[in-house]
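Let's sit down with a protein and look at its sequence and fold side by side. Please make up or recall a protein chain and show it to me in full. Label the sequence line and the structure token line clearly, so we can match residues to local backbone shapes. Go ahead whenever you are ready, and we will take it from there.
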Amino acid sequence: MYPEGIEVRGSSLRICFIYKETRCRETLKGWTVTPSNIKKAGRLRAVIVSEIACGEFDYYLRFPNSKKSLLFGGANNNGAITLLGDLIKRWLIIKETDYTPETLKKSRNALNVCSNILDKNRSILNITHEDALTMRRDLLQGMTAYSNRENKKGRSVNTVNTYITVCNEFFSFAVRSGFIKKNPFNNVGHLTVDRESADPLEVDEFERLISALSTNEQAANLWTIAVYTGLRHGELCSLAWEDIDLERKTLTVKRNLTSKNRFKVPKTKAGERTVNLLSPAIEALKRQRRLSFLRPANETNIALRQKGKDRIDVCTWVFVTGLSAHGKSVNNGYIGNVGINRLWHSCVKRAGIRTRNPYQTRHTYACWMLSQGVNPAFIASQMGHKDMTMVLKVYGAWMQSGNESEIEKMERALNCRAPSVPHLKINKQ
């Protein structure tokens, strides 16, 4: 005869009790069926029954891996269990105040992927540091689960690090809010990333890109302006004729187009800048003016950096859709980020040059300017950086070719002459 509430099922021991008017059965994992363990299980049940009677029983502490703990476990001060998926939803609603729509979307995507690996129907109390490390491994080596494109094995290191950062922020919120005591993502380090060096276009490659027979006039103008101004692609998309002064040879960056086709001011004050136009860019703008200058202007809503604030800009887009044979126009006439990316890869393929990321047009501007000895601080201001730190860090290698000419400049400026070495008098002993 077994003790009350103890059952033997094959090679397993099971303990039975009533909690909150619910009959509960829990298998004692790792307990072999022996007379000694049967007696211990009976004593454990007696302790649990006593704790229930005294109001001291915590289901999660007794059975942390049980599905019942999701219903009865004490996750916070009021004794309510909190599921990972539910708290993620609450956190994303809270972060709507802080995040832009683009950042919110990225965070939601990251947490959806991570919660599927960790199990969104799991108590947040149940997630350990080991789970966090295992998730990082699965992100790097496991299969993706896309619903709208082909799946593959593994993700890039940059993507994995981004997901870890988002999870760390979320679980820090859970700690500060009292849902858990420790952040399981503490000390989950980022994976080492080899920074990809800039890969600018060579002059002959650029000439082939814009002169290929299949490259239309707008595409040639766009890549010329991109390379000779260093504008970000979102800034090219949102460029309007109202921002350009060809007499003064300047272009003012006032807005950016996000990945969600939302116009906003540049992320930082340094991004709002005046770019001095070089001759090739001026000539390209003059050619582009024949294609788009007389298009209708659009009143466009521009989101400001302060949450909930915006302004209206009147914009006659420089780069437009609807120039092909079918004449159809999308995006209210402006060319979008997706359109620029597709155009780049098409032009690169037809020109027969080596494939690169389209962002290399911006790298090309910086590298060409540095190789010609242009002041890095001036380049930084033209590119929208706060200071020249980023320019030196990313593009410093392109300054080496100018070392000799810089030394020559210093010699001329300072009129340096090496002092003669006085003859040493040797005293004979």
In short: Residues 203-267+279-365 form a domain with the hpI Integrase; Chain A fold (CATH 1.10.443.10). DSSP finds 16 helices and ten strands in the chain. The longest helix spans residues 35-54.
